[in-house]
Amino acid sequence: MRILLQFPEGLKQKGLEISKKYQEEGHEVFFSASPCYGACDLALDEARKINADKIVHVGHNRFMRSELPIPVEYVPYYIDIDIEKLEAVLPYLKDFKNIALATTVQHIHQFEDMKKFFERNGKNVFAEAGERALERGQVLGCDAGAVEKVAGRVDAVVFVGTGVFHPLGLGIDRPVFVCNPSGNEVRELGSEIERLKKRRKGAIAKALGCRKFGVLLSTKTGQYNPGHAQWAKKELEKRNLEAEILVSHELDPMSINNYMGFECYVNTACPRVADDQERFGKPVLNIGMLKQLFEIMG
Hints:
The chain is of the alpha/beta class. It has three domains: about 1-75, Rossmann fold; about 85-190, 3-Layer(aba) Sandwich (Rossmann fold); about 195-295, Rossmann fold (3-Layer(aba) Sandwich), CATH 3.40.50. It is about 30% helix and about 20% strand. Helix 7 links the parallel strand 10 (about 210-220) and strand 11 (about 240-250). The longest helix is centred in the middle third of the chain and has 18 residues, at about 190-205. It starts with a strand and ends with a helix.
């Protein structure tokens, strides 16, 4: 079988090691060298070009629920944590009885152990499965449903993992604590979440003065939303604003900005693109932010 191996950026250093297993089984192995930002970002074009029998996508669990032109095998890459290191976050939770618990795919296999730990320490733990994330308690950059669905029942959120990319995407008005078990560190994200909210509000305020909009349409399989793009263009034009749809597989700000004249972008791809205002140098609105703009305009 001819296999195309695909890895997110943080796991590409494991590529040669993981490929050996498939080669020893007699498979012909190719590597996708393209950037990969998540389970939504499948190397379908590369797989077609080399006539691959399937893509082995390492590091994430299943995201796409629709049929794909080439079979995709998702192979999660799990990283064990020492559950007892979660003790570091307990002092921060002394005033909170009901907590939402969230983590990423790397640690989701230990979710039940995490839940039991907090329950042993007197907490009521809540979590659901998201819209795209399949596992209870798992969050993606584009899907915080595991937490948002229980927002009305909790006083605080505990995110177990490294970095702040995922917890900053949690759309919940509750204290958010990031517990990094590998470094035994805890961060409260209140000020960073407020800064993100202000940046988004600022982008909407700047967009009020814009007349020419570029609507960003990604061709990535998990981010392709032509209906949203066409709706945005139509609604902008109804308000006597200029709008054009810009189509790309990779939404590169430098290349996009070479189209002179656009004053604001509307993003229909990964919603976290809108948090990258600095690289675009112009306001970037998600569809939800565009709807808020229309409400302000009346």
